Amino acid sequence: MKITGAEALLESLRREGVDVIFGYPGGAVIPVYDMIYQKDFPHILTRHEQGAVHAAAGYARSTGKPGVCLATSGPGATNLVTGLATAYMDSVPVIAFTGQVSTTMLGRDSFQEADITGITMPITKHNYLVKKVSDLPRIIKEAFHIATTGRPGPVLIDLPKDVSVGHLNYSYPKTVNLPGYKPNYEGNAKQIKAASAALAAANRPLIYAGGGVISSGAEQELLRLAEKTQIPVTTTLMGLTAFPSNHPLFLGMLGMHGTAAANYAVTNCDLLLAIGARFDDRVTGDINAFAPHAQIIHLDIDPAEIGKNVRVDIPIVGDIKNIISALLPQLSPGRYEEWLETVERWKKQYPLAYQPQEGTIMPQAVIEELCALTKGDAIICTEVGQHQMWTAQYYQFTRPRSLITSGGLGTMGFGFPAAIGAQVGNPDRLVIDLAGDGSIQMNIQELATIASYQLPVKIIILNNGYLGMVRQWQELFFEKRYSQVALTNPDFTKLAEAYGIKAYTAEKPEELRELLQAVLEHQGPALLNCLVHPEVNVLPMVPPNGPIDQMLGVGET
Amino acid sequence: MKHTLAMLVVNQPGVMTRIAGLYSRRGYNIESIAVGQTEDPKISRITLVVETENEAELEQITKQLYKLIDVIKINDITKDDAVERELALIKVSATSANRAQILQIVEIFRAKIIDVSLDALIIEVTGTQDKVEAMIALIKPFGLKELVRTGKIAMVRSAVQS
Fold it and tell me: Taking Cα atoms as reference points, which of A16, A386, A310 lies closest to residue A173?
């Protein structure tokens, strides 16, 4: 039976188990939207294409399933770029469909034409321009396979209008044939043996876990590894939620705004077991002073990460879950008492701390209070900046995939649309966007989306009237020349109310808990505008490119 | 150090862009690139000559290339026993006075004259990079008018059976 490309697209999505598309219509995708109408395919209409791609990513990050978004050609497609780059940096499986002018019009600077496959080549795992409608089922099958296997990542499919309306004999392939794509899942047995020998010989080992643990679904294996061997654990920003924040072996996040205990442990350990992490510059600081006494074991699914930034002594390429499972039986309970005592002493001596100030809400207090009220069980989405770092520091995560944040690209405006996707994917969970007053305004148009679908997303703005992180750098490294960071903001409460969203403003510390509670308990979407102390810094802080054991704000509070 | 990489890639539009884009994005240099279909029409062979600072850099760029879905196989054949060829077309000024001299050089290099006019010749030369460069150097003094080179292609020799 012959069907159109648009129908083949929706049928293929159905077979891939896709239960929702985040998107925005336009000329080149009208045939696809017509089919969405006819088939009543679940679709969330955002108010900007960037909102759609971040929502798809929020859905993917929180559920582990691929997220799907759809935009028209030209400006619709280019509006996806930031979201694709964000997903690429954090290895998130997103499938983006873009409309394109008809194949006969390609390359003629036609109306709303943009070379989106050319533009997105460096920020997607792979992309396709569909030239023949008969290729569409195969391409969709390959796209889902590529996006969700190996090291996950976004894949874009560009659909010319004549492909959407063209007809094909539809059949969906069962397998893919990609001779150039064969991820390695099993770790090399000899290397695993070498790793277990190194762990047995170590005196001061440390686990440094990243987002790869979560991508692999290896949280339980990581927990067993740490508990069996009694090796302390630090994670990257992307690795938070891979290990329970309140676990006695947990040292908190490492790196630029990591805890003193984590950073000291890295500098002093004699063996660093890196698991699904990529030695980002925000983690390592001065690369030459990073883990200077340590032998390094690196577990990763992506061979290109091995030796990219640091020399690695024992690389093991494969799926984290498989590697840890193979490693576990070879390991004996650790005898690292002395090392654990040292680490424990650092934890006690240099806890995260801040100085409360009379009559002002401290931003860190909002997160502590929120953590207490939600018992660490909410899905927290963040934007980028100070509030993001305070969330990483002060929220005690209890469940995997409950921190949705832009780690690699550092995309302001990510958290709110991501929260929309997370809420759609997890209708029964409490989803909160922790935002700054700068970031929230980058995709604030999505207030209309949560209002129209009555998505019960809660927005909490830590409003300090500044682009706080930039202000902090200007204070510390540019002699307080506050260039272009003071914000004149709208009244966020009134703004939310204009969209029909319940909203409150908290000004005094004594009303914080009650208003937080009111927002969290509200049935539909709600917003809390917290007027916080304007000039608080995120501490500890490793000055850029400095060694990570030399932190500002350690032991001063 | 210079390396010759022999790559097998899926023969489809955009593959060259992906490879060239990856090189420039990661700050590596391509010295020469030659591409063509193999015995299997679905697969193309790319011969790349690249300049890298050290082994680690070569390893990293190889791994990055492997991440491209369309790249099937990469072999560093720099140290292998391989046959290497490059082809050049050279247009040189030639008068009745010096034509004989040029022809002599062409003969020594076992090159060919493929076009003759009153005041110029086109020479076709095939060989290793060194040979092509030597030929160009000798022809230059006569007045080099135009030069086209293909970039190197290479093939590893089969093992000799004993």
Answer: A16
